[in-house]
Amino acid sequence: MRGFANVCVIGGELALALGDGRELYLTLPLLRRACPCAACQGEPDAMGRVLRPVVEYGPGAFDLKRFELVGGYGVQLFWADGHGSGIYSLAYLEKLGDLAGQ
């Protein structure tokens, strides 16, 4: 079964229990730096080129205030500096876990 069984913050990590029994522990700074929203990752222009914007992280940028599950496929994170437009799909979170060596 795909999806989330449980999501919570433990210390400086987002802990995700997946429906298939696996668990992911992703650090909050990793998640913020990997925010998938267009303001953080950029979006393609008419020619298909993606110019990644320069993102500056101020006070509270790595402090997670809350999160919301989005359907059965993702989680939206809301940071203390007011940023909260990124929706992290389950597939994207699994990819981040693989890159982090989990």
Q: Remind me, CATH topology? A: NE0471 N-terminal domain-like
CATH C-level class: Alpha Beta
Tell me the distance between the termini: 19 Å
Secondary structure tally, helices: 3
Low-confidence stretches: none
Indicate the mean pLDDT.
Answer: 93
Second CATH tier, the architecture? 2-Layer Sandwich
Structural class by SSE content: alpha+beta
- Total beta strands: 6
Q: Give the domain tally.
A: 1
Major β-sheet, in short? 3 strands, antiparallel
The secondary-structure element order is EEEHHEEEH
**Which sequence of strands runs across the widest sheet?**
1-2-3
Overall 3D geometry? globular
Residue share in β-strands: 25-35%
Radius of gyration: 14 Å
**Which percent bin holds the helix content?**
10-25%
Please characterize this protein's 3D structure.
The chain is α+β, with helices and mostly antiparallel strands and 102 residues long. It has a single domain (4-99), classed as NE0471 N-terminal domain-like (2-Layer Sandwich), CATH 3.30.2020. Helix content is 20%, strand content 33%. The chain has 3 helices and 6 strands, in the order βββααβββα. Strands 1-2-3 form a 3-stranded antiparallel beta sheet. Strands 4-5-6 form a 3-stranded antiparallel beta sheet. A hairpin with a 3-residue loop joins strand 4 and strand 5. The chain is globular, with a radius of gyration of 14 Å. The two termini are 19 Å apart. The model has no long low-confidence stretch (mean pLDDT 93).
